[in-house]
Amino acid sequence: AQTVTQSQPEMSVQEAETVTLSCTYDTSENNYYLFWYKQPPSRQMILVIRQEAYKQQNATENRFSVNFQKAAKSFSLKISDSQLGDTAMYFCALFVTNAGKSTFGDGTTLTVKP
Amino acid sequence: DTAVSQTPKYLVTQMGNDKSIKCEQNLGHDTMYWYKQDSKKFLKIMFSYNNKELIINETVPNRFSPKSPDKAHLNLHINSLELGDSAVYFCASHGTGSYYGYTFGSGTRLTVV
Predict the structure, then answer these.
(1) How many CB atoms lie within 10 A of CB A101?
(2) CB B104 to CB A44 under 8 A?
């Protein structure tokens, strides 16, 4: 079975500052992917960033980057230069290829303050 | 162009009724899903289809029946609706290669009264 844990139910950050959201996961499989999804108040789920487990290099997408620690099964998301539009719920997700599905964490609500 | 289209966006209905939610994707993906997001925002998988074939069926009441007439469509029919079925239902399709990951529909907020 796969599990994903997000230990921070809520976080806040000042506009233009940097914030890191934590995620740990557990799986006995070797072939998997990790994702962060964003859900703003509009309800739409948006893929933010993807990390292939076999890649050592941390993924980056503009202001978003991850710190992937495979041995520790940790996958944190760093948001740099936070913007008001980053206010949303963020979900960490683990996709195990053999299982063919994603397991989601419980989410972290991020508020960016002006 | 909308990649994953879900209808309706909102659905309010009485207990005991039967309702359907429709989902269509124009991305050419083979695999589609239904997820349920409850009032605490927890996301749980319900079903998955790969090229019209049911491949994942989680512990979901028999009142929920998915149907996939072709790989671009995945519908969800719910019989005898109960108060506890109130939630947001998301359809998603799974990309491959550089598009690996879910593309979600906009969700259907179902309210059973």
Answers:
(1) 22
(2) yes
Q: How far apart are CA A19 and CA B107, in angstroms?
A: 28
Substitution target in B35, B47, B53, B102 with the highest count of A β-carbons within 10 Å is B102
Estimate to the nearest angstrom the gap between the alpha carbon of A31 and the chain centroid. 18
pLDDT tens string for chain A (114 positions)? 899 999 999 999 999 999 999 999 999 999 999 999 999 999 999 999 999 999 999 999 999 999 999 999 999 999 999 999 999 999 999 999 999 999 999 999 999 999
Contact A112, A88 (CB under 8 A): no
Q: Could you count the other beta carbons within 10 Å of the beta carbon of residue A68? A: 20
Nearest alpha-carbon partner for B96 in A39, A16, A95, A20 = A95
